[in-house]
Write a structure and sequence with these properties.
It is a single chain. The chain is of the alpha/beta class. Helices cover 66% and strands 7% of the residues. The protein contains 19 helices and 6 strands. A 6-stranded mixed beta sheet has the order 1-2-3-6-4-5, with helices on both faces. The termini are far apart. The model has no long low-confidence stretch (mean pLDDT 81).
C-alpha cells in the first residue's frame, strides 16, 4: 500500500510502498534549476541507489564529447538507420538551442545526478530504453500519414527560430504545462505519444522498481512523473508485471506487411509486361520509359535539392528505377553512401553536427547532414516517381484495355 508523503512538490514525488521508498525528481532537460535540485536531492536523501533516465549509449555520449568522431555514416545507412539518426540529431540540436538561453547543455542535470552519486559512492542504474529502439518503434508503429507528420514536425523544430526564455523552460516542469503538451502530442501524433511517453513510462517504472536498495531516487524528465508514478502503484499492487520484453524490441514485420512490400514492384513489372504483350513494342517501351524517367528524374532532382555531388545525382537517376522494384534496398541508401564516399565527412563536420542541424545553411555546409539530406530527398523523389509512373500507365493501358478484357473473359 502506498503511503502519502507531505514532502511532495510539483517536481518531486515521495512514494512509500511498505519498506520500499522511491523518490521521483522531475526535471527540464535544459534547466539550471533542475541541476541544483538534483544535486541537493541526492545529497540530502542519500538513497541506496540512483536511477537515471538514460540508456548506456546515451550515457557514453554524454560523458564522451568526442563520441561523434567515431560515427560511421556509411554503416548507419547500411543498417537502415538514416532517418533515425537524422531524428536524433534534430532533437538533440533543438534541445541544445533551448539550453543556450539557460546557459546549460542538454543532459547536464543527468550528469549532475551521476557525478554527485559517484562522489558519494551511491550505485547508479540507467533505466531508460535505448533511443534507437524508441525511435524505430515510433517509426514502425506510424501510418504513412503519421510518418509524414512526424517528418514535418522534425523539420519545423530543426529550423525554428523561436526563442525560449529560461522562465519558459522552468514552466515545463509544472504539471499544467506538461498536461497541455501531452494532450497536444496525443491529438497530433497518437502513435508517437504512445511510444515516446506511454511505453517509456512503463519501462522507466519497471526499471526503477527493480533498482537495488530500499530507497531509490529516480531522476527523469518532468513529463514522465505522473505516468511513472501510476505504473509504480500498479507494480506495488501486483496488477502489473515488471516484464518489459514486449516493448523493448522493434516489432517484426507481419507476413501481410512483407507481402505488401512486394505488391507494388510485382504490379509494376506485370503492367509493363502487359504493355508489351497486349499493346505491342511501342506501348511497352512507352511504359518502361515512363517508369525509368519518372523514378530517375525525381530521385535525381531530390539529390540535386540536397546539394549532392554530380556522381550522386547520376547514381540517383540510374539506380532509382531499379531499387524501386526491390523491397530490400532504397535509392536513398545507395545515393547516400555514394555521397559519403565522394564527399567524405571531416572531423569538423562531426564536431559541429548538432549546431549545424539547427539551420538550413548548416545542413548544406555539414557533409554528414548533407548525406542524410541526400538519403531523405532522393528517397522522397523516387517514391513520388513511383506513383507518377503508375498513374501514367493508366493512360497507356486504356488504349488496349479491350484486348486484356477479351483475354480474361474468354
Amino acid at each position: 500500500m502506498e503511503q502519502n508523503n507531505s514532502a511532495d512538490t510539483a517536481t518531486q514525488k515521495h512514494l512509500e510502498f511498505g519498506e520500499k521508498k522511491i523518490i521521483l525528481v522531475g526535471t527540464a532537460h535544459v534547466s539550471s534549476e533542475s541541476i541544483e535540485e538534483v544535486k541537493k536531492a541526492v545529497t540530502d536523501i542519500k538513497p541506496d541507489s540512483v536511477a537515471v533516465e538514460l540508456d548506456e549509449n546515451r550515457l557514453k555520449n554524454l560523458e564522451d564529447p568526442e563520441s561523434w568522431r567515431k560515427m560511421d555514416i556509411i554503416k548507419v545507412l547500411k543498417n537502415k538507420m538514416g532517418f533515425l539518426m537524422l531524428a536524433n540529431i534534430v532533437l538533440a540540436g533543438y534541445q541544445k538551442r533551448m539550453g543556450e538561453n539557460a546557459g546549460v547543455k542538454p543532459g547536464d542535470e543527468m550528469l549532475a545526478a551521476i557525478e554527485t552519486s559517484r562522489s558519494m559512492g551511491i550505485p547508479l542504474t540507467m533505466v531508460d530504453r535505448p533511443i534507437a529502439v524508441t525511435l524505430r518503434r515510433a517509426w514502425v508503429k506510424n501510418s504513412f500519414w503519421g510518418k509524414s507528420k512526424l517528418l514535418s514536425m522534425l523539420i519545423a523544430s530543426a529550423f525554428s527560430k523561436e526563442e525560449v526564455s529560461p522562465g519558459e523552460i522552468e514552466n515545463l516542469k509544472q504539471t499544467s504545462e506538461m498536461d497541455t503538451m501531452m494532450r497536444d502530442l496525443s491529438d497530433y501524433l497518437p502513435a508517437v505519444k504512445e511510444v515516446l511517453i506511454d511505453e517509456r513510462d512503463k519501462y522507466l517504472a519497471s526499471k526503477i522498481w527493480t533498482s537495488p536498495g530500499t530507497t531509490v531516487l529516480a531522476v527523469l524528465g518532468a513529463g514522465h512523473l505522473g505516468g511513472v508514478q501510476a505504473h509504480l502503484q500498479k507494480l506495488a499492487a501486483g496488477s502489473e508485471s515488471a516484464d518489459c520484453s514486449a516493448i523493448e524490441t522493434v516489432p517484426q514485420k507481419k507476413l501481410g506487411s512483407k507481402i505488401a512490400s512486394w505488391i507494388i514492384p510485382v504490379l509494376i513489372v506485370a503492367l509493363i509486361v502487359c504493355g508489351f504483350v497486349f499493346g505491342g513494342r511501342q506501348a511497352g517501351m512507352k511504359m518502361f520509359g515512363s517508369w525509368v524517367l519518372w523514378n530517375g528524374i525525381l530521385a535525381a532532382i531530390g539529390a540535386v535539392a540536397a546539394g549532392g555531388h554530380p556522381l550522386t545525382v547520376l547514381v540517383s537517376f540510374v539506380g532509382a528505377p531499379l531499387t524501386s522494384l526491390c523491397p530490400f534496398i532504397g535509392i536513398g541508401i545507395v545515393s547516400g553512401i555514394v555521397q559519403a564516399v565522394v564527399c567524405k565527412p571531416k572531423v569538423s563536420d562531426m564536431e559541429l553536427l548538432q549546431e549545424d542541424a539547427t539551420s538550413v545553411k548548416g545542413f548544406y555546409r555539414n557533409r554528414i547532414l548533407r548525406v542524410l539530406l541526400v538519403f531523405i530527398l532522393s528517397s522522397l523523389g523516387s517514391s513520388v516517381g513511383t506513383f507518377a509512373a503508375g498513374a501514367s500507365f493508366v493512360a497507356v493501358i486504356s488504349s488496349f484495355f479491350d484486348k486484356i478484357f477479351a483475354v480474361f473473359t474468354k
